[in-house]
């Protein structure tokens, strides 16, 4: 190859590397700037506004449940739900702390791992912990989720990013690293239950039977803007999880149904033994990877595995 051609190729390659580095560093600086200015509380408590403070009444109705974007969302089927009350936000760290203080409850992620029930676990997963999103510098495709999900011993609701992290000054953030039975225990303590998938989806559809399911990435929800998982543009103002209620509520007055954290439902996931259906997508849902920021979207979640993109809210029959 001619020397001038080699030199030109070298210059082009160097320019591409510099451009990529510029975009990366700029994104990182922007993320750091935003994370230092994000609010720690968006919503003030409202007491006594309903028979069930902190909850919203959802009228019953009949609708076509499901969606058609991903195979697991179909087939569309007619479903009826009775009226119910639902927490207007995801359950917060402060609310969960109140439960733990009153009951001494220990979450699944804080207990010794049952290795008899889960034979063959790698050594680090034999210690109590949770699965934590760790933003990678680079990825080789998006098929292998272990490129951004890491099991971190010592991660739990008190230390959601691992043992060196805490929930200090995060009272108004939704609680994470909650296994299914932890969510159920909290709900029972409050005299409530977890929503069914149909209740959750009906509430996320604002109890409107005839509205077409939205497809676009919502503006009023904490999701991921940019190329997941390597470029987080944070156009919605939040690098990671947001305090509850930072975005406009839906027409029923429910906050963060879509985005922020996925939410547990009681429905068993048909094709994955031991898994429950989770709904709503999270701050990690991006147009290039997980278009699950829609009411009809769903995902299986192992009931006893705590992860930090998943929380919950409770419901109550009238
Ligand atoms: Ca975001
Ligand atoms: Ca949510």
Description:
With 318 residues, the chain is of the alpha+beta class. The chain folds into 2 domains: 1-32; 38-110 and 170-316, paralog of FGE (formylglycine-generating enzyme), CATH 3.90.1580. It is built from 4 helices and 11 strands; from the N terminus they run αββββαββααβββββ. It has helices spanning 3-37, 93-103, 180-189, 197-204; strands at residues 55-58, 61-65, 77-81, 84-87, 129-133, 149-153, 262-268, 275-279, 299-302, 310-311, 315-316. Strands 9-8-7-10 form a 4-stranded mixed beta sheet. Strands 1-4-11 form a 3-stranded antiparallel beta sheet, with no helix packed on it. A hairpin with a 6-residue loop joins strand 7 and strand 8. The longest helix has 35 residues, at 3-37. The radius of gyration is 21 Å and the shape is globular.
Topology overview:
Layout: H1 3-37, E1 55-58, E2 61-65, E3 77-81, E4 84-87, H2 93-103, E5 129-133, E6 149-153, H3 180-189, H4 197-204, E7 262-268, E8 275-279, E9 299-302, E10 310-311, E11 315-316
Parallel strand pairs: 7-10
Antiparallel strand pairs: 1-4, 2-3, 4-11, 5-6, 7-8, 8-9
This protein binds calcium ion (CA) (2 copies).
Keywords: Signal
Signal peptide: 1-19
Protein name: Sulfatase-modifying factor enzyme-like domain-containing protein
